[in-house]
Write a structure and sequence with these properties.
- The chain has 2 domains: 199 residues, FAD/NAD(P)-binding domain; 142 residues, D-Amino Acid Oxidase, subunit A, domain 2 (D-Amino Acid Oxidase, Chain A, domain 2), CATH 3.30.9.
- The chain starts with a strand and ends in a 16-residue tail after the last helix.
- The radius of gyration is 20 Å and the shape is globular.
- A hairpin with a 2-residue loop joins strand 7 and strand 8.
- Helix 1 packs parallel to helix 6, helix 1 packs parallel to helix 9 and helix 3 packs across helix 9.
- It has an 8-stranded mixed β-sheet with strand order 4-5-3-12-13-14-11-15, sandwiched between helices.
- It is 30% helix and 24% strand.
- With 360 residues, the protein is an alpha/beta fold.
- Bound molecules: flavin-adenine dinucleotide (FAD).
- Flavin-adenine dinucleotide (FAD) binds next to helix 1, helix 2, strand 11, strand 15 and helix 9.
């Protein structure tokens, strides 16, 4: 029997499995489809919340912890899997926010580099931008990873640490015995578990509601476009009016993203495509000459204020939850996974876990 069963093989499930397996636990990861093909594939990979000062301490603490270790984590994943997640320190340039004072205060509180820069310097940092008239907020330390590569690297790492991965295995029920987790149901079969961690992203609430547990996690759709641009055509992550461009190492540029309350509908729409194309051209006019290679949508696991649930259930022995990372699962993932592992293994936690408990 596995000591630990994890349900949901997105970034959060994979990082959690990796942390526990590194500590010597026997871990099985169950995934309904294939590893990392939902929100974790669809995201932009920015290693920072957008407008980080708009978030609570609970989110900022997880983000800061992750930002400090990400470069090393990417190197380890590349060594373990042979796949480079392309951690790249592109910096984040924020335009048109009018939130310079808040940004400076946040940077001081969290020891982050943050400069308020004149229009001429904005243009110098990103020459492809439309003519700039306002100041910009420049966060030079912000990095990015390439999501499809990150999830592949994580898959390789799980193999390296001998995590048992069962794909095409949808959990459709959780079994209890005397208020203790006993097993999960997959295609009519019971898979026993001593510890069970729910990391099922936007679908987590559905699974837990079967046990009468109500978490406030819902799907929030985000659509993205990929432009086939030239290397160097864009070199910084640029954010303006909640829309961003992210340059990848091979020159491709991602443009995102929408925020849509449409339930579990993952389809793309021509309205969103038009809107994102318009924003891309408004920011970087030269993208008009570039082919749009791909348009997709993902379902973020949205939670109140974007604060994830990372906790051990108090009533049901053996049940744990790590979900609800909303717009920030890539940046919050490493700290969330480490904190979850600390809770499962009863180790001194990397940070106070109270803000991430369920309120009943
Ligand atoms: C457009 C977009 C842009 C984003 N940009 C960023 C960004 O720049 N930076 C950042 O930090 N974050 C970003 N995010 C957010 C980030 O991608 C998510 O927070 C993160 O991927 C959540 O990971 P997860 O593992 O919880 O969920 P998911 O990746 O959705 O994984 C959950 C997994 O659980 C599986 N599952 C569900 N139910 C079951 C079941 N019953 N049995 C078995 N398996 C099950 C699913 O198939 C899925 O694979 C973005 C998201 C989107 C959509």
């Amino acid at each position: 029997m596995s000591e630990c069963l994890i349900v949901g093989g997105g970034i959060i499930g994979m990082l959690t499995a990796r942390e526990l397996a590194r500590e010597g636990m026997v871990v099985t990861l169950l995934e309904r489809g294939e590893l990392g093909q939902e929100s974790s594939w669809a995201g932009g990979g920015i290693i920072s919340p957008l407008y980080p000062w708009r978030y609570s301490d609970a989110v900022s603490q997880l983000a800061s912890w992750g930002q400090q270790i990400y470069s090393g984590l990417a190197t380890e994943l590349a060594e373990e899997s042979g796949i480079d997640p392309e951690w790249t320190q592109s910096g984040l340039l924020i335009l048109d926010s009018g939130e310079e004072a808040q940004a400076q205060q946040w940077a001081q509180n969290y020891g982050q580099a943050c400069e308020i820069i004149k229009p001429s310097l904005v243009q110098q940092l990103e020459p492809g931008l439309t003519e700039q008239k306002g100041e910009g907020i420049w966060l030079p330390d912000v990095a990015q990873v390439r999501n499809p590569r990150l999830v592949k690297a994580l898959r390789g790492s799980l193999q390296h640490y001998a995590v048992k991965v069962l794909e095409h295995s949808e959990v459709d029920g959780l079994c209890l015995k005397d208020q203790r987790i006993e097993a999960v149901m997959v295609a009519g079969q019971k898979i026993p578990a001593e510890h069970l961690i729910i990391t099922s992203g936007a679908w987590s609430g559905g699974l837990l509601s079967g046990l009468g547990i109500r978490i406030k996690v819902r799907p929030l759709r985000g659509q993205m476009l990929l432009f086939r641009a030239r290397p160097g055509q864009v070199s910084r992550i640029v954010l303006s009016k909640d829309r961003y461009v992210i340059p990848r190492r091979d020159g491709r540029v991602l443009v995102g993203s929408t925020l849509e309350e449409v339930g579990f509908d993952k389809s793309t729409t021509s309205e969103a495509r038009e809107e994102l194309v318009g924003e891309a051209y408004r920011l970087i006019p030269s993208l008009q000459g570039c082919e749009i290679e791909h348009h997709w949508a993902g379902l973020r696991p949205a939670s109140p204020e974007g604060i994830p649930y990372i906790y051990k259930d108090e009533k049901i022995e053996g049940l744990y939850v790590n979900t609800g990372h909303f717009r920030n699962g890539v940046v919050l993932g490493p700290a969330s996974a480490r904190l979850m592992a600390d809770i499962v293994l009863k180790k001194a936690p990397i940070m106070d876990s109270k803000p991430y408990r369920i309120c009943v």
